[in-house]
Amino acid sequence: MSEVGGSRPLAAGFGRLIVLVYVVFAVSAGARALFQVATKFGDAPVSFALSAIAAAIYLVAAIAIIRGAARLALIAVAIELAGVVAVGALSFAVPDLFPEPSVWSHFGSGYGYVPLVLPAAGLAYLLKRRRPA
């Protein structure tokens, strides 16, 4: 079922905190994105679509960790890290592309940089928990 060593669940210990933050971000980013897409999508379609994608990735990561699906969790968290780095860099390089901020704009500065720190912490946790080859 999972690719972690021992019988300790993936969502135990520090994993619980990671799951909690992922769930909070999935709900908050998802609700915000749904509202923005429903009411003003034309103002900043890229930003709002990226926020919705981020929310979906947060949800996948949380569920994967809860269910012990380490490989899926690793993939989701790696995609999240790549997304926040790419969008963060683009939001500085091409600011006109982001007239409204997304969750990942400016490396998550609007969310206290948690969107940048969370996948790094998640990857470190998941990689530490992997079974030796």
Order of helices and strands: HHHH
Question: Helix fraction?
Answer: 55-70%
Number of domains: 1
Output the radius of gyration. 15 Å
Computed structural class: mainly alpha
- DSSP helix count? 4
- The proportion of residues in beta strands is under 5%
What is the molecular shape? elongated
What is the β-strand count? 0
Mean pLDDT: 91
Low-confidence stretches: none
Topology:
Elements: H1 14-40, H2 45-67, H3 70-93, H4 114-129
Provide a descriptive summary of the structure in words.
The protein is mainly α and 133 residues long. It has one domain (14-129). Helix content is 68%, strand content 0%. The protein is built from four helices and no strands. The mean pLDDT is 91.
